[in-house]
Amino acid sequence: MKYFKDQKCDFTNPVITMGTFDGVHLGHIKLLDEVVKKAKINNTKSIVITYYNHPLETIHKKTFPYLLTERENKEKLIKLCGIDCVLYLDFNEKMAQMQPKEFLKKIIIDEVGSKTIVVGYDTHFGSSREGDFQFLKKSSALYDVSVEQIEPVRINNHIISSSLVRDYIREGDMEYATKLLGRNYSIYGSIQLGHHIGRKIGFPTINLHPANANKLIPAIGVYICEVKVNGKTYEGVTNIGYSPTLKTTRIKEIETYILDFNEDLYYQNVEIIFNKRLRDELHFKDKNDLIEAINNDVKETRDYFERRK
User: Fold this and answer.
1) How far apart, in whole angstroms, are the C-alpha atoms of residue 240 and residue 252?
2) Residues 62 and 146 in one domain
3) What pLDDT was estimated at residue 294?
4) Which of 114, 214, 223, 236 has fewest C-beta within 10 Å?
5) How many Cα atoms sit within 13 Å of 235 on the Cβ side?
6) Is the residue at 4 inside a domain?
7) Residue 85 has what pLDDT?
8) CA–CA separation, 238 vs 253, rounded Å?
């Protein structure tokens, strides 16, 4: 396969959709459900065409701290919807200049061989994003393909989009982000050596290093969270910020105190799942005030999970 190097997918006249699918939010899920449904009706495979990296990275030649779902997690979430195959385009500069007609002919028609295309309300492809639903409808007769557009999902009269999800995460409103995603936002990464300062005040923390440097980090503050490690889930309190009461480094960190846990997790992979923002990160006058605040955070966290039982 020319445009999907080292990738294999057994298909004949598959039903396809395409896009970045960052976040795999409720709007994406509605679209993916329709693709799966049509593939079953047509007795064929369902395929998602997406990208290794966000196209904006190629266009602007720099990275952005935008990413909602790491590649492995995105593929897992897409396949949980019933999609048979995920194909990744290497979105390079040459592809960025590809006209919509060429993209449709060479990639979708010739390479993938699709006869049924399902797109979202905001699907764009090709140079200057000129390829859209109207372009596909005009081209459908020429290539003997059927094209369907799925209406967006709305919450409180707002269209659910990856950009909207990012806005709420940047504000630290994890509860509303959960409504848009249909699940809690999380960060995958490994545990790195920290300063051991938390241990000295009775609250040892793990220091998370995100697996992807482009991962979107929630607003600075203190959060109720869950920690998944070694197949188990624990309750925790996460601080995102600079720990100004104890540190002067001005390095933003993701530090989590895991409740009722006292094991060494250095260099292990974990997932931090965000439930709710508790408060701002504060600069206390001394460590005793900080300890009191953390004790309150822990109590609120225990109460939160107790109410969920």
Assistant:
1) 7
2) yes
3) 95
4) 214
5) 16
6) no
7) 95
8) 10
Report how far residue 303's alpha carbon sits from residue 297's, in angstroms, rounded to the nearest whole number.
10
Predicted confidence (pLDDT) per residue in 83-140, tens digit: 999 999 888 888 888 999 999 999 999 999 999 999 999 999 988 788 999 999 999 9
Cβ-based neighbour number of residue 278 at 10 Å: 20
Dihedral sign, Cα of residue 96, residue 97, residue 98, residue 100: positive
User: For residue 93, what are the domain limits?
Assistant: 15-158
So what's the pLDDT on residue 169?
Answer: 98
Judge whether 85 and 46 are in contact, CB under 8 Å. Answer: yes
Which is nearest to 181 in space by CA: 194, 196, 168, 198? Answer: 168
How far apart are the two ends of the chain, measured CA to CA in Å?
50
| pLDDT score for 264 | 85
Q: What is the DSSP pairing of strand 85-89 with strand 46-51?
A: parallel
Looking at the structure, tell me whether residues 242 and 148 fall in a common domain: no
Residue 172 has what pLDDT?
A: 98
C-beta of residue 301 within 8 angstroms of C-beta of residue 224: yes
Element spanning 138, H or E: helix 133-143
The helix/strand/coil state of 237 is: strand
Which parts of the chain have pLDDT scores under 50? none
pLDDT, residue 126, reads 85
Neighbouring-strand partners of residue 229: 232
Beta strands in the chain (DSSP E): 15-18, 46-51, 85-89, 116-119, 146-149, 154-155, 158-159, 186-192, 206-210, 221-229, 232-241, 253-258, 269-279
The C-alpha atoms of residue 86 and residue 103 are separated, in whole angstroms, by 18
Token code pair at residue 242: 């600079």
Same domain, 19 and 149: yes
> Both tokens of residue 250?
């001005």
Q: Cβ neighbours of residue 277 under 8 Å, at least 6 residues apart?
A: 172, 173, 174, 218, 219, 221, 222, 223, 224
